[in-house]
Amino acid sequence: MSELNRIFGDLKRNYVPGLQWVDVEEMLYGEEAGEEVLLERARKFWSLTMCKQEIHKQEAQLQVLRDLSGVLRAMRDENQTTYSNTDDNWASIITISPASSYLSYIYALIGLAVPPEHVGQAAPSVLNDNLNLQLSLNAVSTYLLTLTIPGSKSYGVFDEDVIEQVLKIFRLLEQNANKSVRANTIWMFFLTICDDLKLVFRYVHFKEHLKARDRIIRCLMEVLYMNFKMGYQNSCAPALHTKCYELFGEIANEHNGDVYETLHLIMRQTFPMHIYTDSPHNVGAGRRGGAMQSGEHISDWFIQLIEKYPDILTRILHFYIECVVSNPIKAWKSTDEKVAINYAAKYDSILFAKCNKSCADFVLEAVKADDAVGIQTRALDLIEKILLHQSEVEWTIFRYDVSKVPREVLLLREVIRCLNDRTFTVRRKACQVLVLALKQGSPMTTKILDESIRFVQFEDANVEALHEPLVEQHELRFEKPGIVQYAFSFEGHEMLEEEVKTIPHMVYQRFLAADNGLARTAGIALLERLVLVNPLIIYNTNFVRETSLLAVDRLASVRKSGLETMETLLEAYSNCFALICVYCRIWACLMSDEDIALQKLALQSFNRMVLKNIQPLEYSNAAKHFMPWRIISTLLMTQPRAYLQERFSILMESESIVTPKLVNVIISHLSTSMATDAWGLLLLLSSRITNNMDALIGIFNSLSSYNMKSNQFLALQLIIGCLKNFSKPALNQLFQKLLTALRTGSIWLGLISSAVNLLNQIYHLSMSQAPSMGSEVPEWQLSLLEDLTIEILNSAENFQNEHTRLQCLLGTYTEIIVMLPKEVDNRIVEIVFKYLQECTRLSESQFDTDNERMTNWMIVIAGRLCLRDTHLANSVSKLYRIILTKNDRPQIINTTLIAINDLGKKHPSILESNFQCILSKLHSNFAMTRVRTFRCVKDIILSGTIKLKGPILISMLSALVDESAEVAREADAFFIRYRRLYNKLLFDHCLKECPFDLNGLAYLRGVRSDSNYKSPLKGPEKEKSRRLLYNHIMSSVDDNTLLLYFGQLKLLAEKTKDNAFVSSPGALTIVQDMLFIMRRICFLTKGKGKEKSSRGEGEEDVGEDEPISPAPSKPAAETAAAGQASTPRGRGRKADSSEEPLKQLERCLRYVEETHRNLKCVMTSELQHSMDTFCRSLAMRFPNYIEFAQPAQFWQKYRSAKTPKGGRKKKRRMDEDAEADGDPEGDPHSADGESDSDNELPLERHKSKPTSSRLSKRTTSCDMLVTELIFQPPDW
Questions:
Q1: What count of other Cβ atoms lies within 10 Å of the Cβ of residue 843?
Q2: What is the mean pLDDT of residues 704-709?
Q3: CA 857 to CA 750: how far, in whole Å?
Q4: Could you report the per-residue pLDDT of 108-140, keeping only the tens digit for each?
Q5: What is the DSSP string of 764-806?
Q6: 3-state class of 1097 per DSSP?
Q7: Where is the composition biased (Low complexity) (predicted)?
Q8: How many CB atoms sit inside 10 A of residue 1243's CB?
Q9: 313 φ, ψ to 5°?
Q10: Are 199 and 148 in contact (CB under 8 A)?
């Protein structure tokens, strides 16, 4: 007898004769019954021989089980030869150990460790827990090993129900998930059980027992998930974790079931496991998990199987990828999805390398999914991971199957197309993918993007060309690079060229122009990366114009991103003039930003970009060392110096960025070609300078040449700002020098005011330190005034030779005289007046440059001299009136307007008496003169001196349609401000009055008018200009007010009844203008209000999707000009306030036919056409009202104008569904042959290219930033 038979014989002594395993099952898990029945079953169980709590018997059983397991393991060991396999078959064992008894024995022992509740309650008072546990665990191992004995299925030892009982032992793991001694013992024994299971799956075929196999897989899964969720509870947990994967390897063999189905099952059950990135933390050792170790995740196991089952794993892993992209678990968070996509990229990478299989085709289709943004974004996430990690096919043969076109080409092409997707989420995700690919892309991705972006020729229409200043001596700067010749090193570049060429334009239009701040921020990031690859984007696209607008973005985060992007680009392309211009535009705005944090950020940026890059000339050997001076010069040219100085003074109070060493370095540049910029920088930093500045006096004295006038001016301002940093001897020397220059007239005109101011500052500083105060009037002023009077009289006698000196003397005289309580010398007044009188006798052609310059100066001097004397002020105003009447030279007129405006602030009556003369210059032939005149009139009106009504209002309104863009913008800004401050309903009234007033027929509406005034927009030849003005007014009025205008139909009917009105010249023009306004209202209010017929019909909206109108508190024109408000997003429900205006319209429709009847006798073809188009517009806009309008015969021919609504199928890409500028069905004049100006706005005409983008909504160019942006928002 073999040892195996002997051990089974020993084991048989513990069997219960006649006991079946189903009987034990009944005892443990029988049907529900009463407590007594359950108690009886439990007693039977504990009375079984193998279950009795007798220590010596239990120990004997345990030893037999161990011996049996040991023998079987030895027999299954491939290297073991000592055991005989002769009796290794159930045929020889079954007579010794019957299958039914053996199974009941095993079933009962397993129940000892995991007894049901009623069995546990009926247990003996003394339980050998440890022995019971050992018996159960060893029984499991023994049973599993005995399944490997040949014949186990034939003789009934293999039983799926018994295996189910065996698997209940796995509950012990969860019940003992801690680091106790008992738990360690259990977890350690499970390592043995897993080894035994490996033998089972190796020797026993489960192909016909998939249910049992699947239960085992389920148990192993529970162990893995428990480890990931709760961590490694003890030292054996990591090893058991690994054993589970080894078991999966044994299970995934053909004899245990179809391999594909098996792996598919494992993938489905481990799908949720793909959200874990970290190794389970080791609770037993008290350590955190950290990064996932190799072989610790199911993904590593799948990847290992690729070499064994490449085709099957390709299908399985593609299944996973498709599920993650198209149908992830709903409970997953976005972070979980990203982790799962990481694993998808991992699978794809290894499949591509080992099997030449890629998920690219699927992903490319997924990105195009309609109405499935989630799928699109997850597909883009997967593309991102693929682009970031290098992966190449690792085949050495069959290379002909490997595509020569890198898969990154197709992926990148689709990502670029997604930049123009109709869904913002997709567009933003595509932008992020491209940014990451440009930053951290794989070598292949980087090569493709780098070459494509560098070699493609970017071209935009109407690019803002900046005229770079001449290169200064020794200056190094970034110059526009030449065109790079094509030298692509990868196949398929032609697929990308056209797509890449459109990227900058898409960034500008779809991102920087978007309402969403996140989109704008994403666009900035992408644009930055593009420019870092190809700086030609700066020069060949609308980069300068688009990025300059970031300065006035409504979101602080976008403004911040704009500045940081310019910094990054300037680091890469130091001293690039275009970038410096944009940087200065953004930076100057942030210095006074409403967000204090951005102000500090701007100051820190200035410190990094300017101050820290300043080096002594001998160390200036790179472009970044010259960049600070270019930034300073740009700022001084484009921004008000006083504003910059004020902002620096405020923001540097709590900063210590200005050091004596830095100041000395800047001073060292005062003798170089950067001198002007150095003076300017010192002036900006003057509030924080602590150095002794005596050396500047000597430098200032050397600034005598003509080219250094600006330096002299800056130097004087600097000395004023740092007066306390100079010693007394130095200030005394400077005082004497300036006094002499002023007395002799040997000083530049532009320096006179600053020089006199500096003398005063030095004098007051001296007096503040004196022991006693001096006389009330400084002696130096009296002495200087006397000397100036004498010198002026002498120079006047020799005017031809000393007229230049006379200008300086007069300028100094006017500066000093206002400081002293003295009357102006009449002799000097006569000299000035006499010169101006002579000038008024000259014709425009007789003025040369010197004459004009001298005349301008004399106009200014005359105004200063007469400022304090009413009689003199009236006298000089008469001279000003003559100049305005006889002359139209822009410089002279501009100077005169400024002078008369300044004079009028002191003497308002002068403005009133000369206002008509001033107003006439609004129609000058020179745009500069019209601009200056408008500004003058604007200031007068806003000050309240003159009322905005009648001819003044008409003249100001006509400026809105001026041919000069600057005049039109000035007028737009004025009316926005005036309406906000004084009269919000101005345009509401203008809409009713303008048809009469613009045609010079105000008296026809019962208003007295100035017979001498002629409207600049009167007559048929000005019809287009009037219509432009009407459009502008209507664009600024809310919809209800527009609808109320239909009340004018009654007025029109009444007026046309009057023969006197109809026969008046120009009356029919008024009628046509009113019909035009009402026709345009039909178009402008389309879809803005639902028509509700009093007859109960027309309840549905006849228009298409109702757009959201701007908030009524801020008119459209104002929002367009300020650039700070936009149309509210989202479709909110609001009360329909258009009901009353629509009821009024319904009542007034009868006056249309009446008006037509009244005009029959004077009807012209043009008037008939206007009437027909108006009626058709009414029929299309308000079909339900026209359906019942009376008289029916009149309206019948217009009712056919109704057209059925239609819809357009949505497209995924915006370029596949180009949006039309207007709805062809809803445009009442689309088919009527009307002129293009019918729907044009005045400010639109001044744009270089009409588009439907944000660019079409701007009314200024970027140059407005440089002077006016700081003080008022530009009208973008």
A1: 8
A2: 64
A3: 11
A4: 999 998 888 888 888 887 888 899 999 999 999
A5: HHHHHHSSS---SS-HHHHHHHHHHHHHHHHHHHTHHHHHHHH
A6: coil
A7: 1114-1125
A8: 25
A9: -65, -30
A10: yes
Cα distance between residue 1184 and residue 1103, in whole Å: 12
pLDDT in tens, 434-484: 999 999 999 999 999 999 998 888 877 667 667 666 655 556 767 777 777
Closest CA to 378 of 323, 435, 300, 442: 323
Instruction: Count the neighbouring beta carbons within 10 Å of the beta carbon of residue 402.
Output: 12
pLDDT at position 124 is: 85
Nearest to 907 by CA among 952, 874, 865: 874
Tokens of 35: 């407590």
- Cβ proximity of 382 and 274 under 8 Å: no
824's tokens: 């102006």
Task: List CB contacts of 992: < 8 A, sequence separation 6 or more.
Answer: 1045, 1048
Average pLDDT over residues 720-734: 90
Q: Which residues, in sequence order, are CB contacts of 802 under 8 Å at separation 6+?
A: 794, 795
What whole-number distance in Å separates Cα of residue 1241 and Cα of residue 1033? 9
The least confident of 193-202, 529-538, 1087-1096 is 1087-1096
Q: Which residue has the tokens 């509030």?
A: 687
Burial class of 140 by CB neighbour count within 10 A (0 to 12, 13 to 18, 19+):
buried
Backbone angles phi and psi of 291, in degrees to 5? -65, 150
> Distance (Å, rounded) from C-alpha 25 to C-alpha 9?
24
Rounded Cα distance, 1048 and 996, in Å:
13
Strand-pair partners of 421: 1213
Measure CA 465 to chain center: 25
Q: Give dist(CA 970, CA 1264) in Å, integer.
A: 11
Q: How far apart are CA 311 and CA 309, in angstroms?
A: 6
Q: Where are the alpha helices (DSSP H) in 204-333?
A: 210-230, 237-251, 259-270, 298-305, 310-326
Residues 945 and 958: their CA atoms lie apart, in Å, by 21
d(CA 954, CA 580): 43
Quickly state the pLDDT bin for 290 (edges 50, 70, 90).
confident
Q: What is the largest CA-CA distance in the chain?
A: 151
CA dihedral 648, 651, 652, 656 (to 10 degrees): -140
1260 contacts 1275 by C-beta, under 8 angstroms: yes
Token pair in block for residue 1190: 């009376």
Alpha helices in 389-442, H assignment, sequence order: 407-418, 424-440
Within 13 Å, how many C-alpha atoms sit on residue 347's CB side?
29
Please tell me the pTM assigned to this model: 0.75
Residue 204 identity (one-letter amino acid): V
End-to-end CA distance of the chain: 103
What mean pLDDT is predicted for residues 373-378? 92
Q: Is the pLDDT of residue 1164 over 60?
A: yes
Please give the single-letter amino acid code of residue 756. V
For residues 1246 and 927, give the distance between their C-alpha atoms in angstroms, rounded to a whole number.
14
pLDDT greater than 70 at residue 599: yes
Token code pair at residue 919: 């107003």
Q: Give the ranges where 639-748 is alpha helix by DSSP (H).
A: 641-651, 660-668, 675-684, 695-701, 709-721, 728-744
Residue 41 CA to its chain's centroid (Å): 74
CB 146 within 8 A of CB 92: no
Closest-CA residue to 948 (of 932, 971, 925): 971
pLDDT of residue 269: 94
Instruction: Tell which residue, 163, 168, 169, has the closest CA to residue 189.
Output: 169
> 158 near 147, Cβ under 8 Å?
yes
Strand partners, 232: 282
Under 8 Å between Cβ of 313 and 358: no
Closest listed residue to residue 523, CA positions, set 431, 460, 437:
431
User: Would you place residue 286 in the very low, low, confident or very high pLDDT band (cuts 50, 70, 90)?
Assistant: low
The pLDDT assigned to 1004 comes to 77
